[in-house]
Design brief:
1% of the residues are buried. The protein is built from 3 helices and no strands.
Length: 103
Amino acid sequence: MWRGTLAPRRAWQLTEHLPPDSALAASLAGGPEHRGWTVQTHLLAQLLNAVRYADANNVRVSGGRLKREPVPVNVPQVKADKHERPRLDLSTHPLAKPIAPRG
């Protein structure tokens, strides 16, 4: 069993090149449910959802009936960055007006 010390610079070097599906990356993203969810797997899940909904739309347009609605792939949500600016919401402003529907 090694009981030496690990310099901060060496610790940084070791963690800098960890794979995106490592335990450290999962904990930084929000928890263990993010383990294995890399950028590529997020994109593949969104692509799969788009194909499922496009296929269902094609069946509807051609006059067919769906046996069941498409079920989206559940993707874990990434926690918001603490330093991210909040979105500007002007809907409660006294001069705000609803957008007229196109017609």
